[in-house]
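Blackboard transcription, Thursday session:
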Amino acid sequence: MSDTLEAKTVMKRFGGLTAVDGVSLELRPGEVHGLIGPNGSGKTTLLNLISGYYPIDEGQIRLCGQDVTRRSVRQRSKGGVARTFQTPKLVLSLPVLDNAMLGGWPDVRSGFLETAWALPRPRREETALRERAAAMLRGVGLSGVMDRRADLLEHTAQRFLEIARALTLRPKFVLLDEPAGGLTVAEIEHLGAIIGVMRDSGIGVLLVEHHTDFVFKVCDRVTALNLGRMIAHGSPTEVRNDPDVIRVYLGA
Amino acid sequence: MKHSLVRPGIVAVFTVFAALLPYITGNLYYLHVATVIGVYWVLIATLNLLVGFTGQLSVGHVGLLAIGAYAFCLLAGGQGWNPFIALLAGGGVCAVIGLLLGLPSLRLPGFYFAMATLAFGLIVSELAQAEQWLTNGSVGMPAPSFPAPFDTPWGFYWLVFGIAAFITWMTANLARFMWGRAMVALRDSTVAASSVAIPIYWTKLIVFVFSGFTAGVAGGLYATSQSYITPDAFIVNLGIYFFVAIVIGGRGVIIGPFIGAAVLAAIPELVGPLAKYGTFFYGFILLVVVLVLPGGFGELINTLVEKLRRTPQSSTHIEPDLEQLRTAIRPRA
Amino acid sequence: MLLVIISGLALGGLYGMTALVYNVMYSTSKVLSFGTGQFAMVGGICTAWLVLDLHWPLWLGFVACLASGAAFGWLSEVIAVRRIVAASDEHLWVLSTLALSTMVQEAMSIWWGTDPTPFPRVLPQEFAGAFDQKFWLPLVLAVAMAVGLEQFYRRSMTGKLFIAMSEDAFAARARGVSTDRMRSLSYVLAGILGAMSGFAGGQLTFADFALGTALGLSGFIALAVGGIGSSVGALVGGAILGMLTSLTTHYFGAQYQKTIAIGLLILLLVVRPQGLFGTTRVRQV
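(Written on the board underneath:)
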């Protein structure tokens, strides 16, 4: 029985443009997988296909051996696929802690009326989730701002909040969409350490990133895309020295 | 959520004041106004969950109020049911109708839902006029009152007060636990909501059905408070009033709309000349609040409190605690 | 039976015109205004007042009717839309246009009264049963309006800019299009067209303060059935709804008009959410 998140020869067209063209990718638990490529190479599109925001035209997405190609975003999240977004998607009118707690929604068993009557179960779940989310926030370094409304948070802190929300979901796989964008050198270092802990804890991390030095540093395997196709795949060193990758990046 | 003692204090003072109102004012007319506000609140409190929290603009709740009122009068008056059972049955009927209305329309974009509910409101008032065999048409029908001790003006006031308090308590619970967060999340960002597996459509539907139920209960109480109902009582403009109360009070705040509802209901009653311009006035307030203060007064107050309480915004310094993170991700596994 | 069909088509023309007015405003602002039906109401009452009460000549009444629509259209953009569009929150524009629409309707009911009053004859035609002007005027004008709008979108610079904005407002602004001015312009145009539909349909609907809400709803149903953004769809959606309304009234009585119409809307949208002639666009992230 497989425990991977797999994309098999995935194809996506937008009108006449083929954004992702027959790309395959396997994300294993306890592994950081980098996805690089120039602008418009289809990285984020591929991530949206894997997490279910766009339907795919051809190919298959498999989660732990199960075909989830036709499953909704919600079902995939419940199945343990969490993600962050290029521009953070937070509930801006709620405090930071509440945003992180939302990640615990799949574990909420209390029904609507149970909650309305404040029976013991919703109370218990509330306390447990609050602790879980708070621990994640302290873990990613947001302990000082838990009560602050999310819209008063700086952009970089919002990125870390999204990671905390994704982790509160207790996911098997986390898909990070350009998490280093706009971060300072020190913050990128912290991000790298957090990703390291995620890997050590057995989470499979897919890292879509522009910042290639960072990718080569933290990833175990790297896939490079150009114009929707896979041009290289392998260890960071292999991909870094791949002639096609060099050509695409240096524009020869 | 960790508020100081201020908020429970205000709630306690207010509750005692509201409970003792019949002793404070001897004036039966004021007591009637207070009762009607309480009846409206039974509807508005849960409509606020739908509009303010979940962001679904139901313009036609007045239709549910009307159905609740007619169901109550027919069952408790015509069929001789116990008024309390009839009240619940009216709520049940409206919950089912809310389900039937929401099932298709909540799948569609927000404006479609608003239009579908507007149409629903218009349909109900048309049918109330036309279906004379059921509703007596424009002649209307008398509303039964509740048995002792709720058959006096103050007895009935306490009944309404008790139901309103119970429903407020339920909405406050929904708001403060995970369901409340889920509602706000799907209002603010459907993308974020689906990324944490919140069932967007079902959540909207459940909230709509719940608000349908209390709208039906409010309808029964409304009928008794007016002692006689005609289709004219349920014009769409009343729906605008519910709406304005919520928008003024502020979305995402439980008690804000109450102040909106009380002020809006009291003004035309107490300042006679305004009654004629009532709906125009509601439209005007709605426009001003949307343009100037889109979060409503509730949010304004929240922001002010926040400003007072907090030390100046320190820049967030991000310092991960990796050990904590490790144990948090895998809690003894 | 002929009368049933003709009056259905006439109503359909009126609904179709309202749907076209929705489209004009939607193209530049992505706002579906709750006040769309009010243009026709204001135009109709304005004409009835000037021509029947103040005895203005009809042509001058018509000009004034269009002017009232233009002014109202422009005002609604300034008051209820301009600041809201920047916030890009559907919640807010639904509320602001609802507020403005309510205010206008209430103001009219206080000033003009709540009883429908007659509308002047437009052409010196003897009453001619099914072929009377009150039936063919809205129908002919609806077709003319759709054709005119299509020509406008295809031929004129302004029309092309409307289309450009509806496709991608950011790109249009980046290319130096004054999107604020275009939006204002589209609302003025919408006001004029809406008032014109009120003029054409005046003999059918009378000058009635409550017309706006009913027409706004029916026009929206026509729009949703036809598909947002499509002129042909607006006419077809209007015709379907108009015929259905007329047939329902004939066979079951007027009280079921709305019930059946809304039933149709919901049924169709569940099956085909983008409408008959619409296209879907999905873009979330």
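Lecturer's comment: The two ends of chain C are 53 Å apart (CA to CA).
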